[in-house]
Design a protein that fits this description.
Layout: H1 6-9, H2 20-23, H3 37-45, H4 54-58, H5 65-73, H6 77-85, H7 91-97, H8 101-104, H9 117-131, E1 146-150, H10 154-165, E2 169-173, H11 182-185, H12 195-207, E3 210-212, H13 223-229, E4 232-235, E5 241-242, E6 255-257, H14 258-270, E7 284-288, H15 292-304, E8 308-313, H16 340-348, E9 359-361, E10 363-370, E11 376-383, E12 396-399, E13 402-405, E14 409-411, H17 418-422, E15 445-447, H18 450-453, H19 458-477
Helix pairs in contact: 3-5, 3-9, 5-6, 5-9, 6-9, 7-9, 10-19, 14-15, 15-16
Length: 496
């Protein structure tokens, strides 16, 4: 540790955000450009270089956090970038999109604000690109073995990069017209500008990875043909089968899934559309679902100029401090957090009747009602207790011209026919079944990421990609691999 007293003398300071009034007028990232580097070395000084660094256990990637914190505090950016990339293919993605379970596991967080691990990670990644430390790393020689990766989200990309660097010839198949999966069309640009994604795609292309866009395996390509053409196939299609809300009035026009709404807004930013067909401009918007996807819808609707935006969360409003009995350190606690989108909604007062910022907590949707043309106009809700039982006398209605359902995902989408045509066995929870080596019941076919694990965080997705790459490499080489496997298929986050 560069400064043994850093955690005592330096308070936590996060990457400052741009003023709300400024950032809601564009789709750029919410943080002040260039404001992170001047503060980050001192923030890295706060790391205590613990004897047992629980931040390692909290992150499935096994990031060497105390090591690169120390290197950043000494401003050895090249070495810091090397240590960071040793465990994480895409730290500029996780540094922007991950909710940072590593910070919840920081030993300093027992009685102080945690080290700004996520900000340090992002600073290293950005500096690596600026200084030219993130050069393509093509293999010295090719193995002569071929791999098809289906899906180009963080799992598919991580697996593809690892296997390409190991010398195998890898092709990534993506059903959309651009690479990136939900990072491309599900994550708004104000959370992560797509230039970060494009940069990695260029790097991977230079390393030798092939990309096949607008190709849905199961519809445009026969999965059996893929099995004969490649030595192995990795399924990393994600968990994109969205959950429904089966209440009266669901059939009304104007009620859409979040993943119908968000991709259109992203396509406007990509220049594909002038305006979104589902734009929230001038509309009263209600978002059903209190998670990150709901917050993404919130920030998007605010930027589109919604008349009002309210977000419903069925859970009660959490406290601002960790509940030590239910969620003791170092588990990831459910506490009241204010995302940039919630900060914007709070300051702009988008929901006058909300409990906090734009959110109504402990609120359950009863039904929708509409006008004579069959378009939704009202969402009827009721307050619920901790067991989600309706509280008598609390029913009320919210004006709603656009309702967005952000209720999470139940498993992989089967509409393309990939799963059924291959005859893949499924787990009871609706995900693809696999063994301890990430292998499915179909010889030569492996499954990783949310398609097999279920809906999870981006760090778990990248860890799955790295781990399945090691399993595939062992399969192709007859039992030996130099590739790291940070997790097993049955590993789970720390819980009580």
């Amino acid at each position: 540790m560069a400064d043994p007293k850093g955690f005592l003398t330096t308070p936590r300071q996060d990457w400052p955000r741009r003023p709300v009034e400024e950032r809601v007028r564009d789709w750029d990232e919410v943080y002040v450009p260039g404001a992170l580097l001047p503060i980050i070395s001192k923030q890295a000084d706060r790391c205590m270089d613990c004897g047992i660094p629980f931040c390692h256990e909290a992150c499935p990637l096994g990031n060497l956090i105390p090591e690169w914190n120390d290197l950043v505090s000494r401003e050895d950016w090249r070495a810091a970038a090397e240590r960071l990339h040793a465990t994480n293919n895409f730290p500029e993605f996780t540094g922007r999109l991950c909710p940072a379970p590593c910070e919840a596991g920081c030993v300093l967080a027992i009685n102080q604000p945690a080290v700004t691990i996520k900000n340090v990670e992002c600073a290293i990644a950005d500096r690596a690109w600026e200084e030219g430390f993130a050069q393509p790393a093509p293999p010295d020689r090719l193995s002569g073995r071929t791999v098809a990766v289906i899906g180009s989200g963080p799992t598919g990309l991580a697996a593809a990069q690892q296997l390409t660097r190991a010398g195998h010839t890898v092709a990534v198949y993506e059903r959309d017209d651009r690479i990136g999966g939900l990072m491309r069309y599900g994550i708004p640009a104000f959370k992560m500008e797509k230039r970060h994604l494009e940069r990695r795609i260029e790097q991977m292309t230079a390393e030798g990875t092939k990309f096949r866009t607008s190709t849905a395996v199961g519809r445009d390509v026969d999965p059996a043909e893929l099995r004969t053409r490649y030595d192995t196939v990795v399924i990393a299609t994600g968990a994109t089968a969205w959950r429904e809300l089966p209440v009266p009035g669901r059939e009304l026009a104007g009620i859409h899934q979040a993943m119908e709404y968000l991709p259109l807004a992203n396509r406007v930013c990509e220049g594909d559309l002038k305006t979104s067909p589902l734009s929230a401009a001038g509309k009263h918007v209600v978002i059903v679902g209190g998670g990150d996807t709901g917050a993404d819808c919130l920030g998007t609707a605010v930027r589109e100029g919604a008349a009002s935006v309210t977000q419903l969360d069925i859970y009660p409003q959490p406290g601002t401090e960790r509940d030590e009995e239910r969620e003791p350190w170092p588990t990831y606690p459910k506490v009241y957090r204010v995302s940039p989108a919630h900060e914007e909604a709070r300051d702009l007062r988008t929901a006058q009747l909300a409990d906090a910022d734009a959110r109504l907590f402990a609120a359950s949707t009863l039904r929708f009602s509409g006008d004579e043309d069959g378009h939704v106009r009202w969402l009827h809700l009721v307050e619920v207790d901790e067991q989600r039982r309706p509280v008598p006398g609390t029913e009320r209605a919210l004006p709603a011209d656009l309702v967005l359902l952000a209720l999470g995902f139940s498993g992989p989408d089967r509409s393309d026919g990939l799963i059924d045509q291959l005859g893949l066995a499924m787990a009871p929870n609706g995900t693809i079944a696999r063994d301890q080596d990430f292998a499915t019941n179909v010889p030569g076919v492996f499954a990783a990421g949310d398609a097999a694990r279920g809906q999870s965080l981006i760090v778990w997705a990248i860890a799955e990609g790295r781990a399945v790459a090691a399993a595939v490499d062992r399969h192709l080489t007859g039992g030996f691999t130099r590739l790291p496997a940070p997790i097993g298929p049955y590993d789970r986050p720390m819980r009580v």
